[in-house]
Amino acid sequence: MFNKEKQSKADLNHYMLDDDYRDDKLNEECGVFGIFKREGKDAALAAYYALYALQHRGQESAGIAVNENENLLYHKDMGLVPEVFHERTLEKLEGNIAIGHVRYSTAGESIRENAQPMVIKYRNGKLALAHNGNLVNANQIRNRLEEEGLIFQSTIDSEVILNLISRHRVSSAGIEEAIEKMMGDIKGSYALVILTPRRLVGVRDPLGIRPLCLGITEDGSHVLASETCALDAVGAKYLRDIEPGEIVLISQDGINSIQTQKLDHSKLCIFEHIYFARPDSYIDGASVYSARIEAGKRLAMEHPVDADLVIGVPDSGLTAALGFSMESGIPYGMGLLKNRYVGRTFIQPEQGQREKFVKIKLNAIRDVVEGKRVVMIDDSIVRGTTSRRIVQILKDAGATEVHMRVSSSPVKFPCFYGIDISTKSQLVAAEYSIDDIKGMIGADSLGYLSLEGLLKTPLESKCGFCSACFTGDYPLEVPDDANESSCG
Ligand code: SF4
Questions:
Q1: Residue 190: phi, psi to the nearest 5?
Q2: What are the residues whose beta carbons fall under 8 Å from the beta carbon of 378, sequence distance 6 or more?
Q3: Which of 338, 342, 348, 370 can pair with 398 through a Cys bridge, CB separation 3.0 to 4.6 Å?
Q4: Which CATH number is associated with domain 291-465?
Q5: Ligand 1 atom 2 nearest Cα
Q6: Any ligand 1 atom below 6 A from CB of 419
Q7: What is the mean pLDDT of residues 239-260?
Q8: Mutual angle of helices 138-147 and 157-170, in 10-degree steps
Q9: Probe ligand 1: pick from 455, 461, 466, max atoms within 8 Å of CB?
Q10: Phi, psi (5° rounding) for residue 55?
Q11: Is 295 helix (H, G, I), strand (E, B) or coil?
């Protein structure tokens, strides 16, 4: 799309304006949750609280499914958790096992049919599934099944997974065998929670790209969640992470584990630590907060700068900014304020009023930044449009210099595992040098954390990481017709 050699600075600015106001962030994937309550029938209420804690992972739709004798009940719709669920809705979802889902989508359409959990009735009963991730061979499997006469009701991978389980179940001794066979068919990233009338099942892909952890409440109820912050929300204690390639089956008799195909090196998405997960979560044994502090410290070591103040771009840049301040000795301040009430229903302004719109979403605190040489920390740069706006806001508020530091490496390659960067042309670092980007965003200097430094930041982690969007080195072969990255 862009030829670096031929672009003048004016052209670059034109590009920035053209792409203005498209969301300039890697977007969250989805969040999943499951609970098997040992006492009481209010599993849906626990799922509701947990989905609140996971809301940052998806804001398009939300849903909960519960068991009712041999039946499954569910409620799902477009919107945020408090928009989808009300007290009366939850009262109708009575059962001791529940699964829940919050969804963000890109390629899979943002329609109610694609909301999860997905519930099916098949020969052996009923089954509900909530999925975080993206299959790279879903199109191939879907085409094959459609040629055999199968009809799909949604456009999401999760329905492919459910169909495979139900087909394999016919020739399997139990659901666990059917799930294991399904895992042999699919390729990609997935953290699944599955509900049957009597069991809760958790499954993690063989590379462990998407996270899934296990917890337990005081009354012995087992809980599965994308992040530990959801365990905290229901008063559950963290037990462990589900291993890559593991199936856990939770029933009245307790918990069973089956370790299926496990590859030599796990590949947790490094962006969980950089941006997606909440800083109060632990993923694969490592604190997200500590990883971000460490990223900020390493950034200060790699790209020191003479300045008066360190600030972070809310929210995910704040913790790394604190780390940068700790290491550099430059005071930390709150130079930017984010408006938390600009939601999906905000009426987008006309072209000429867009400057104002940025200031509705994010504004500088003049008293903090005026007359200061500011170091501004953000977690990543995708298109660069937002960075440019923020630099301008800080300069308008009287900052004498703005030095941008990024607590990850340049994002140059698309993701096929559940994150919404599907083409290189959406990525400014794929097309331009760091010096070009510095000019485009109007910063006085720009420094990214090196990949080597980045991979050392989750210090306690026992897993390896996927970093393909920085390197192009994909842990799973990506077929030509792979799905664009979409959750579920
Ligand atoms: S390509 Fe990037 S965003 Fe996608 S899973 Fe790998 S590290 Fe995460």
A1: -160, 135
A2: 312, 313, 316, 317, 387, 390, 404, 405, 406, 407
A3: 370
A4: 3.40.50.2020
A5: 469
A6: yes
A7: 96
A8: 60
A9: 466
A10: -55, -30
A11: helix
Higher-pLDDT residue of 435, 422: 435
Torsion sign across C-alpha atoms 382, 386, 388, 391: negative
Fold adopted by 30-263: Glutamine Phosphoribosylpyrophosphate, subunit 1, domain 1 (3.60.20)
Judge whether residue 57 has pLDDT over 60: yes
Looking from the CA of residue 468, the nearest atom of ligand 1 is 1
Cis before 42 (ω within 30):
no
Which H or E element spans position 264? none
φ, ψ for residue 467 (rounded to 5)? -135, 30
Q: To test ligand 1's pocket by mutation, which of 467, 470, 476, 486 has the most ligand atoms within 8 angstroms of CB?
A: 467
- The two tokens of residue 347 are 């009426």
| Sign of the C-alpha dihedral computed for residues 425, 354, 310 and 420 taken in this order | negative
Residues 304-338: tens digit of each pLDDT: 999 999 999 998 899 999 999 999 999 999 999 98
Question: What is residue 124's DSSP assignment?
Answer: T
Q: Which of 40, 37, 46, 35 is nearest to 90 (CA)?
A: 46
Is the Cβ atom of 136 under 6 angstroms away from ligand 1?
no
Ramachandran angles phi, psi of 94, nearest 5°: -95, 125
Short-list 69, 74, 96, CA closest to 85? 74
Whether 132 and 190 have beta carbons less than 8 Å apart is answered as yes
The pick from 209, 272, 454 for probing ligand 1's pocket by mutation, whose C-beta has the most ligand atoms within 8 angstroms, reads 209
Residues of the chain with CATH 3.60.20.10: 30-263
270 lines ligand 1 (CB under 6 A): yes
- CATH 3.40.50.2020 residue window(s) in the chain: 291-465
- Atom 5 of ligand 1 has which residue's CA nearest to it? 269
Q: Which residue has the higher pLDDT, 400 or 347?
A: 400
pLDDT in tens, 155-207: 888 999 999 999 999 999 999 999 999 999 999 999 999 999 999 999 999 99
